[in-house]
Amino acid sequence: MNHPIKALNTKTYKFGSKSASSGKLWLTGLLFVMPALVLTLLFDYYPILSGVYHAFYRWDGAQTEKFVGFDNFVEIFQDRVFWISVKNMAIILVSHILLMIPTIVACIVLFRLRSGRSQYLYRLLFCIPMVVPMLVTMLLWQFMYNPQFGFFNQLLDAVGLDEYKQLWLGDPDLALGSLLFMGFPWINTIAALIYLGGLQGVDGSIWDAAKMDGVGPITQALRIELPLIKGQFKLNMVGVISGTITGYGTQLVLTNGGPGNSTLVPGLYMYQRAFGGNTEFGYASAVGLLLFGIALLITVATLKMIKSE
Amino acid sequence: MRKAIAAEAAKHGFLILICLVVFYPLLLMIQMSFKDVGQIIYAFFKVEPPFHFENYARAWKQVYPMIGNSLIISGGTALLSVVVALFAGYAFGRLRFPWKEQLFWVIFAKLFLPGVLNLVPAFVLAWKLGLLNSYWAVILFGASASLPFWIFVMRTFVQQQPQELFECAKIDGAGETQTFVWIAVPLLRPMIALLMINVFIAEWNNYIWPLVTLTSPDKRPITVGLAFLTSSFPGDYGPLMAGYVIATVPLLLLFSLGMRQFVQGLTSGAIKI
Lengths: 309, 273
Known about the structure:
The complex is a heterodimer of chains A (309) and B (273). Chain A has two domains: 1-47; 73-308, MetI-like fold (Orthogonal Bundle). In chain A, 71% of the residues lie in helices and 2% in strands. Chain A has helices spanning 3-16, 20-54, 71-77, 80-98, 101-111, 116-127, 134-144, 151-158, 175-181, 189-200, 204-213, 217-228, 230-246, 249-254, 266-275, 281-308; strands spanning 57-59, 65-67. Chain A has a two-stranded antiparallel ribbon with strand order 1-2. Chain A is globular and about 70 Å long. Chain B is mostly helical. Helices cover 77% and strands 0% of the residues of chain B. In chain B, helix 3 (54-94) packs antiparallel against helix 11 (222-232), helix 9 runs antiparallel to helix 12 (237-264) and helix 11 runs antiparallel to helix 12 (237-264). The longest helix of chain B has 41 residues, at 54-94. Classes of the chains: A mainly alpha (309), B mainly alpha (273). At the A-B interface, helix 1, helix 2, helix 5, helix 6 and helix 7 of A face helix 1, helix 3, helix 4, helix 5 and helix 6 of B.
């Protein structure tokens, strides 16, 4: 772990010898980023490299550590369950990207309010769901889907539509959709704050100019607000993509991938292979390596696509 | 004029509707926390006496050690993360030093890597470092995981500031460290609040990593504990909902403290200094 740091220091010294003040500046910069670099290398990159390495091993973290070449990958590609999890992940990814829209729309509407006081009030209200722990929200929605006393079936009972009562999370055909519906109307507080930050950079005269042109509300959004939050959109999009590919907390808590693998995602599959009884750490690392490739490809492609527009 | 008022009313109507739908599950949680099983089954939508306050007493007995664990873990992670990200974000956004872009990309690229790839080896690393069943396992790994995103955000924010602000300080004879402390940190205050609140909340929400690393029940944070209680007491929803409400209170308090920083906005006040 020491090697990169040592190399950097020598380099600083060499460059810095040109002039004392700029050398000091370089040292300051390096000192400022050093803690971040050390933490990232040790606790983020070392495990990743270890994972890449052990993807080619049969490994349980203790006694067993045996090189098996590409055996893990061959096994994965022949694994029907893995492909089901990939299909589910693809559906979730597309949905999550589309579900970014409500937050953007809500932010634009909020920002167009005339009164600063109301803007402040709604921003505050948007922030409130964030104070509820994610896990509580999940357990709460798990309860709402509960077939006996959950909200949805109780509501159907109350309005006399009890023949439409469902098992929700217990129904293989509805489970994935139910998980995606969770959090309706999908206002993401962090994303909203980031968008509003971008919109705030607007000079007031833009609005007057738009008014004079007499453009409609949608044209105005396309011409003024959306270009303003393009950077913030990219930021959030990258977050959504990597979050969806890496995330499996919802599935772990609500359904554990069931019923019958209908909500299984690759991350959860890996978790189960590593911690669900057998310690198949090598196989899990191989699945992780594949996910790494998929995530990287999609994210880079997305960024390229947005950039070229 | 009348058209403008109608447009304002429509905007308010839209936003109020969204808020109502967003808040409904939370209201449901609160009203259920005062009910017994019979009321939940037969009077689901009604709010009527008797209110079972003892649900909270029962829940508190189970939940308070977990709250303590979560406070230590989340507070520690937010502090470590904010200090490290502030220094790095400022340096990457403003200072000049060799390999700056490369080093930034080393950290930033982590953002694209699925967390799932490192779960298993990180577990083995924590195990080999003797961190299993210690708060440090969650704090160190949690802060490190939060860094790439927040360093990126801090860097972007520093770059977006009018650079004259920093230059002014320099002309007045301030060194880089002084500029950082006296100009950048106050300027970055909204981002500091945003980071601390978000990292604290992220850690408060962290489930999988503490589930795997904190094996003894007395170290369990609130998330792992609540999931455990929910599966151990199926159907006992009154006290469970009371537990969910209790788990929410610390974040609510934190949010009310940081609210002004949050809502004050991200750019206001910078140029007025």
